[in-house]
Amino acid sequence: MTTDAAARRSAPTEAVADVVLGVDDVAVHFGGIKAVDGVTFDITRGKIFGILGPNGSGKSTLLGAITRLTPLTRGTLTFEGNPFDGVSPQKVARLGIARTFQTVRLLPDLTVRENVALGADLGAAHGGIRELTLGRRALQKRSRDAVAESLERTGLGGFEDIRPGELSYGLQRRVEIARAIAMSPRLLLLDEPTAGMNKSERQDVSQLLHKLRAEGLTQLLVEHDVAMMVDTCDTLIAMNFGALIAQGAPHDVVREPSVQEAYLGKRGAKDARSQ
Q1: 96's torsion region: left (phi>0), alpha (psi -120 to 50) or beta?
Q2: Most CB within 10 Å of its CB: which of 78, 90, 214, 267?
């Protein structure tokens, strides 16, 4: 079930055109530590692609490499067919890639609307020549429209004038997602968006991501919650010790002995398969 980079490069033109993000033989080494080592996969348009793995498996390091916050040791990254492994982190958003982080990063003194507006403003700033041709009022209207749309898409209507500290943890996570999609990305990266949530909150986030997928937003989801990933993703890869150990349909991936051993250990995986 693992991906072969050469086979991907020789794929039909139609399939390649549908690839939003291409990760080819990506490695991130810190001295002798191989945090990510030779990972290859494609993310196709309009799908939710998941990266699963136990703590320390290299998931977040890989996400950092994709967003250019972490330097590559080797490998190639492409977005909609164009290499971007040489660009700066500041230019990643300009390409149409937005992300959320493991920890909540909302500004406590701003309202929900104002926090989300930061994403809309960043999206306008990265809009390029087209935005430069618009007047100030047109840009302000575009930003207001983007904020209103993002709040509606994430189910935050009615919370616009509340400050983050007055919201539940699950709603704060929604605000972060709203801020990211206010940038009008074509690829949304989510780094453990359900960390610290209870079961009900995780189900709410899963439903939100399905809604965004139905609206056409391609997503890359990084999580260690197996059940949430199986319920949410179209395709999964599993990582352990920096390497890709399985890839395919979610139910198939979690049944792989290598994946069960990564989570349960050899004895636990053996017991689970015998039940």
Answers
A1: left
A2: 78
Neighbours of 24 (CB within 10 A): 21
The residues pairing with 222 across neighbouring beta strands, listed in sequence order, are 51, 191
pTM (predicted TM-score):
0.83
And the tokens for 27?
Answer: 């490695």
Give residue 122's pLDDT: 72
φ/ψ of 17, rounded to 5, equals -65, -25
H or E stretch at 200? helix 199-214
Q: Are 73 and 79 spatial neighbours (Cβ–Cβ below 8 Å)?
A: no
Task: Sort 234 into a burial class: Cβ within 10 Å, 0-12 / 13-18 / 19+.
Answer: middle
Is residue 230 within 8 A of residue 254, CB to CB? The reply is yes
User: What count of other Cβ atoms lies within 10 Å of the Cβ of residue 130?
Assistant: 7
Q: Which amino acid is at 216?
A: G
C-alpha neighbours within 13 Å on the C-beta side of residue 102: 9
